[in-house]
Structures are given as C-alpha cells and as structure tokens.
Specification:
The protein has four helices and eleven strands; from the N terminus they run E-E-E-H-E-E-H-E-E-H-E-E-E-H-E. It has a six-stranded mixed sheet. It has a three-stranded antiparallel sheet with strand order 1-8-9, with helices on one face. The protein is of the alpha+beta class. It has helices at 44-59, 75-78, 113-121, 192-202; strands spanning 2-10, 16-18, 22-31, 64-66, 69-70, 86-95, 101-108, 126-138, 141-156, 166-172, 209-210. The protein has one domain (2-210).
Amino acid sequence: METKLIYESASFDVEIESDRGKPIIYATLQSFDVPNINRRIYPFETMKPAIEGFKQLVANREAFGEFGHPYSNDIERLVTIHPQFVSHIIRHVEVDENKKLLKGVIYPTGPYGKHLIELAQMGAIGFSARVLASWIREGDYTKPVPPIRIICYDAVIRPSHREAYIESIRFENATNINNDMEVEGIACDIDCAKVKKYASQKGLIVPNTNFNLLKISKK
C-alpha cells in the first residue's frame, strides 16, 4: 500500500449571470463512488472525515486554491498553498442529497483571481483536488485509505471528472509528512495549447505551475 499525493479533477460548463459587484463561481468540486477516467474511485463513506476536515478550512476562511497545480517534487510545497499563486477561496461546500457530489461556492481572489474569471467565462477551467492518502488497488480501480487529507482544490484547464460542472458565475456585492512518502501528482487532460495561447495573449507567466501530465516521482 502506497502513500501518495494525487491530483483529481472536476470539469464544468459555464453560465454567466450579472448582478453588480464581484463574481462568485458555483461548481461541483468532486464526485464520489463512481470511477473517474484515472480509474480511481472515492467512496463517500471513506472520504467523509476528509470532507469534514476541509469544511473546517472553509469555516476558518483558509480554503484557498492556486491557479494550476505546483510543479514540484517537494512534499512541503505540494501540501502548501503559496500566496503568490492564489486564484480563489472556497467559501462554502456541501454534499448533494444523493451523496455523489461535493458542491462549492468559490470566490476568485488573489494574484490570479482575474485570470480565473476570464478562463471561467471562456468555459476553459475546472477544479482539481490535491488529495493526500494511502492507496490500494481493488480489481481494476484504485481507492484511498484513511487517513485522507484534502489539501485544496486548484484551478486547472479541462480536468477529468465528467460528472462535475460549474453551475454559474454570478456577479454580486458583495502536518508533518514522512520523508519516505511517495508523491505522485497528475493534472489530468490539461489542454496545454489553450493555456499557452491564453498566457501569451495576457503576457502571463505562471512559475512553478504544471499544465501537463505530470508524474513527480515513482518508487
């Protein structure tokens, strides 16, 4: 059984609503009990403690995320949200009544907040979890084993969970980690050409951020 940091993603369509003031993104962050295209399954009952832990981050207004996943093999970096690359904060999360989806209310903020808004309006952005856990293989699929920690949900391009969608964008006022741990990060199905085109148009540089399929290390 291996301990890994995994990136898992959710994709979405975008609908724009305008009501004066700052934008708010409504999105599905993660799906449960269904295989994703990375052949991983996140059982809801297994994930419940991690969800409750993430809800505490939300309640404390600490649930920030970055514009892209960190491009690093440093475990300290991978479990840290760097202020320089922040693009949003999640202000509310809830599980749907069928216990299949984790919904979120996301406020763009920080140095890359405006770029998140622009890409969301283009329908080119999603949210991808950094999940720290041990993993076991059961048949054709891999599942997390407690203890599980949701580090954050980063903004990425065209991620992998087909079940998850942004519902709308509205404008309103409004641990210590073992040194022998294996770290693996995958930013799934990233449309590199679209990111490069956008970055070129905006003169945007995002250091230490991965927009390609990335396997950081493997034992």
